[in-house]
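# step 3/5: fold
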Amino acid sequence: MSFEKKLDSVLDRFEELKKLLSAGGSDDPQEFGKLSKEYSNLTPVAEKITELKAAQTELDDLEQIVQDAESDAEFKELAEIDIPPLREKIPVLLQNVKIMLLPKDEADEKNAIIEVRAGTGGEEAALFAGDLYRMYQRYAELHGWKFETISSNETGIGGVKEASATITGRDVFAKLKFESGVHRVQRVPETETGGRIHTSAATVAVLPEAEEVDIHIEEKDIRVDVYRSSGPGGQSVNTTDSAVRITHIPTGIVVCQQDEKSQHKNKAKGMRILRSRLYDHERAQKDAVRAASRKSQVGSGDRSERIRTYNFPQGRVTDHRINLTLYKLDRILDGSALDEMIEALTTEDQADRLSDLGEV
């Protein structure tokens, strides 16, 4: 299908939906809901296509006036003034339409579960993991999202060995999905008397939060072990076997949960995380096939890939996937400049996928 025919088919479907909904849609509430959602999703695309087509028609008309020997001289002069802005506007509109027509990531609209773990570097790595966790917490607050800690294993001086949270709001996963990977920090620890720069790391995993309709887990596929919760230093959090370890037998994925005093609450939280990890596991397998033919790995979500370096002495943050360096370390860590990184990654991914489509 040519690109023009593709645009026409989108507009035809939009008009069809408009007529269906104005006539009452469907007697089935579920079907009516689907049609309404499709119409809502198509509306901005149809508006942009209509704008593009109107601009192209206007340009054709103006160029015809200029080329027509019998055209009025004043009309020609006005046409020649209006043509250059249209020639600049149309490629921008065309690019916007192409981006809007890219296949949507079905997980983009989902909420997310974020997991941050200290990597190599001991206490300094735990402090950095704590910095990252608070960065995402502040970023969520700036976007009006709900940030809710699921579990946290803290070191007691601002560091975390590992921490996870659910982030709920509009397009959360779409914004945060490129944050998965190894984040590296270079800074002088407070305990370092010689001023030597230490390098340590933390890993971040961002999972789309899966609903039961996305992933159904059979009881026969899981093994649930219970044990006594323990806090830092082995101190008992409570005296009952309330901690839960859930093993998904087919994949070997293990989730441990002990923050709640109730075994049932810990199991419910654990199942929520397991469902999201399984959903992410399925996505990763599909992505691996697609990524095999792609030059860029921006959206690969590879947990072992070093994606970013935070250099404190120079006040800079570098994202290695797109070779972008921002000298805004403090503002990135307080969440206020993180969008600059995220938007650059999103743009790169869109450009990458457009090139994969070839000529449209």
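# step 4/5: annotate
Confidence is low (pLDDT under 50) at residues 232-237, 293-297.
# step 5/5: archive (pending)
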